[in-house]
Design goal:
The protein has helices at 3-19, 24-33, 45-59, 82-95, 99-102, 104-107, 122-131, 202-206, 229-237, 264-272, 283-312; strands at residues 22-23, 62-66, 72-76, 133-139, 149-160, 163-170, 176-180, 184-193, 221-228, 245-249, 253-260, 277-281. It has 313 residues and is α+β, with helices and mostly antiparallel strands. Strands 7-6-5-4-8 form a five-stranded antiparallel β-sheet, covered by helices on one side. It has a four-stranded antiparallel β-sheet with strand order 10-11-9-12. Helix 1 crosses helix 4.
């Protein structure tokens, strides 16, 4: 398939999805103005329908016509499956793969903070997951039980905050760990088979945790945060967790409720919001955050006192 078609598919999906609903005439007009349309060609109705059918066949995304609403097109039942999300994500990456060839002014105006070079291909890990075969990992950072060399049963992959993680069970301890690919020193694939538990659902497992800070021994609980300022708008737009609920609001702040494990990563996120965020409940979490704030304040106070003392000498 030509690379141009990939880019057209991405453009069509994004255009219809962001517009919610629009007639073919508007889609054709937007195509005329699109930077992808270098020769300013018309979008023929037949071509549009061919694209629709190809997108549904490849990605399970249906662009449907609502004849009762002036023949406007929309995406019916946007698929939430991880496989479709992965396909669209890879499609988007491919759609920009030739920027350095024919869009020279653009490539100098796109800045990417690239992660460390990937030493291990995702394809090999996916193959191990498909075959249910064990993997030996050597990690730069010890796990919670102090191990850096583990034989694991790979349960799933997750892309979170711009990084790839693998969730796996240590065959010696039966503990589940999440490994950041960027912190893995070596991966060795094996032919040793393991039985993947039929009742294990990655989505259900991660539901009670914040990000990749997972500990199956910890129990989720209700957490309430008082959030104000710009952070309130940010949290409304980009929820911290899928359990987030805004249970009370006024002109100064809002009270957000969560149901999760208040892990160290979650606490670090709270602290990153500065004075905009305050833990209201539970008291144990409030005390934990308070201790961290006091420790930070003492460190800065000691530094300030030392600087003043040096200046007076």
């Amino acid at each position: 398939m030509k690379r141009d078609l990939f880019r057209r598919y991405v453009w069509l999906i994004d255009t219809v999805r962001h517009a919610k609903k629009l007639p073919f005439e508007d889609i054709a007009e937007r195509w005329l103005k699109s930077p992808l349309n270098a020769d300013h060609s018309q979008l023929a109705l037949r071509t549009f329908h061919n694209h629709r059918h190809a997108i549904e066949s490849l990605f399970g995304i249906r662009i449907t016509c609502d004849r009762s609403d002036h023949n406007r097109y929309f995406i019916a039942d946007w698929p939430e499956g991880n496989a479709t999300k992965l396909k669209v994500w890879m499609l988007q990456k491919l759609s920009f793969s030739d920027l350095d060839e024919d869009s020279d002014p653009v490539r100098h105006r796109i800045i990417l903070d690239l992660p460390p070079e990937e030493r291990y291909g995702l394809s090999s890990i996916i193959e191990a997951i498909q075959k249910n075969t064990l993997i030996r990992l050597i990690c730069a950072i010890p796990t919670s039980d102090g191990k850096t060399n583990l034989m694991i049963a790979p349960y799933c992959l997750r892309y979170w905050r711009g990084q790839w993680f693998i969730l796996g069970k240590d065959t010696e301890t039966d503990m589940l760990h999440a490994f950041n690919f960027d912190r893995v020193l070596d991966i060795q694939l094996t032919e040793t088979h393991f039985d993947f538990p039929k009742d294990f659902s990655p989505e259900v497992f991660f539901r009670d945790f914040y990000g990749m800070d997972v500990n199956a021994m910890q129990i989720p609980e209700v957490v309430r945060l008082k959030i104000s300022g710009r952070t309130r708008d940010e949290v409304r737009t980009l929820p911290l967790h899928n359990s987030q609920k805004e249970v009370m609001t006024n002109g100064e702040y809002s009270l957000f409720e969560f149901y999760l494990v208040p892990s160290e990563t979650f606490q670090t996120t709270i602290l990153s919001h500065g004075t905009d965020t305050e833990v209201v409940y539970p008291e144990s979490l409030r005390e934990s955050i308070g201790e961290k704030v006091r420790a930070m304040a003492e460190r800065y106070t000691r530094h300030l006192e030392s600087s003043v003392s040096t200046a007076h000498e």
